[in-house]
Structures are given as C-alpha cells and as structure tokens.
Amino acid sequence: CKTMKNDHWRDRIVINPKVMMGKPVIRGTRLTVQFILGLLAHGTTINEIIEEYPSLTKEDIFACLFFASKALETTEFIPIQLEVG
After folding, report:
1. How far is CA 7 from CA 1, 66, 69, 85, in A?
2. Spatial distance between the Cα atoms of 33 and 81, rounded to a whole number of angstroms
3. CB of 64 within 8 A of CB of 37?
4. Cβ neighbours of residue 37 closer than 8 Å, sequence gap 6 or more
5. Helices 33-41, 58-73: crossing angle, 10 deg rounding
6. How many CB atoms lie within 10 A of CB 67?
7. pLDDT of residue 8
C-alpha cells in the first residue's frame, strides 16, 4: 500500500494480552493477522475479505502484510528441506 509507511501499520495492528491470547489483531476486531494472511495465502482476494468482514478496509489488509514483513526482518528460518539442483 502506497500509504503504509514506517509505523503507520501500528495504527491498525494491536497486541493485547486480553484479546485472542495476545496475537496481533486488526484494531477493533478479533481478526488476527495470522487469520488474514491465511485467507490471502489460500487465494481469497482483498475484496472478498472485505465483503465477508465489511468493517475492514484495504488499509487493514495491507497493514497485516506490512506487519508480517516487519516481523520477518528479524526472524531466521531453518529450511525443512534443501532443494538441490
């Protein structure tokens, strides 16, 4: 999202230990970042998500993606299987 810069995702993604066991959620909802990313990963479009959850905006969805990209900046992965060839 062209408008999602620096820390603007912080206006949309919150972590509260009393909501969804402290998982990051879209502010004002119980929809976790993980849930939204899962929908996208399974081919659900942004418009389909917004149709199903009309209180969400495209900016909320982009904030989930931005949050995930920021979280991965400091994460190291060990491949389960190395591809050869």
Report:
1. 13, 10, 12, 40
2. 27
3. yes
4. 64, 65, 68
5. 100
6. 21
7. 78
